[in-house]
Amino acid sequence: MISFRTKLVVLISVLVTVSQLTTGFVISRQSEEALCEQNDRIAMAMARNISKISTKSFLSRDLASLYEQVKLAMLEQNVLFVKIVDLDNRIIMSETLSEVGAMLSFSSENLSSPVAPGELILDGSSAKIVEPVVLSGETLGHVILGYSHVEIRVAILALKKKILTTLLIGLSGAIFIAVLITGMITAPLMKLEAAAARIASGKFDLTKPARKQGDEFYLLSQTMYDMAKRLESLVYNDPLTGVYNRLLLNSRLREELARSNRYNWPLAMLMIDIDHFKKINDTYGHLVGDEMLLACTRIFSEHIREEDCLARFGGEEFVVLAPNMTSDNAMLLAERIRQAVVDEHFISSQDTGVIRMTVSIGVSLYPAHARTENELIATADQALYSAKTSGRNRAILFSRYSGS
Questions:
Q1: Which residues, other chains included, contact 303 with Cβ-Cβ below 8 Å and sequence gap of 6+?
Q2: Which of 55, 362, 375, 390 could bond 271 through an S-S bridge, CB–CB 3.0 to 4.6 Å?
């Protein structure tokens, strides 16, 4: 499959080649026409001058004077022949003296037919001018001057070769510039493609693009970056509370377990359940229940460390991952959270008055209580179940010996 960059290079090269070929053709064509027209004007002026000067010599049959005029004309570079004929087409004077007195032979002079006065006749790379010899309004004969366009054609051929050389140089330059331009265009596009691939694979850790004023690719990159952050929020964050959801919790749990193994430190999991939350929904409605979830989330967030991970496990259950935390410290954290909820006087915007809540917390540690992520979740859930069956509003550390 041909890449976009290759297509762009080929397209630019073709456009440059076509434009140069067209320009070269127009220049050579116009140059040839201009040179031929100039050559025609010179030949016409020369034939007219010979006609005027030769009038008296023509009447007197002063062949010497006529021959001088013919020799002067033949000195011109492009003149092929000069013939002065009478009305019967008998040659009075020619560049070839042996033709004097003979009838004009059109085939011998490359003339295919009798000529008309004042006529310009083109014949391939040559042409001829017919100019009348006039005295007092009476035509006495004609001056026939033949000249060549061969040198013009040679000059035009040389010009075309120069144009071709210029075309090749221009094409090389066009390819080089096209590669640079396409590189400037495709490099940001390839970065955007790589960013899109990361987003498609569920990885949203894109680097914020450096600001470049007026750069359309910066605007596109910024849009993709914003989109990635928005998608990350939609995919990994709970839409109500804004904390991580179960999907990201699973990912963070795997990362923290790997880090625990690498650095040989414990990982604590706190599973928190809001006591009798269904009663709050049934009594005050789900809008108030949502406000209570948000309030509890705020309390949990205020008491954990920056490196800890808070996620909504489902419904009214939340999980805190606390890396490098011993069982004693994990229980202290759980107690601080539990006591903060107990001490909070929750106020709803629905004018329900003060609402009091409590939470139950189950605590488990890796590797002391579990060897895998599923076991860690299961042991924390068992500890939570023990806290709830023991009267709620308490934190319990998992212990396999107590059967909890």
A1: 333, 336, 337, 340
A2: 362
